[in-house]
Amino acid sequence: MKLSFSAVIWEWRGPAPFYFVTVPEKLSRLIKEAERLVTYGWGMIPARVRIGKTLWKTSLWPKDGLYVVPLKDRVRQAEGLGVGQVVEVWLELGL
Description:
Elongation Factor Tu (Ef-tu), domain 3; 7 strands
């Protein structure tokens, strides 16, 4: 399954900060419908993600009925991204 969307970068402040974008509701529902085919457990969905010119493998996390995409530091630095910015996200699920 391949998807693309725009989303705002947000920060979760815990012992170490984490940065995410949230998959929109409509697309999160599509992912949820396919979850049993692609999850490796706990609702985690393996994915290949591209923002700008940077492509990486990660897993989508379920959060509040939606899914979130974690943004690695190397991705944010390579693309010059920060909290509050809107980014175009491309996903390929179930790798």
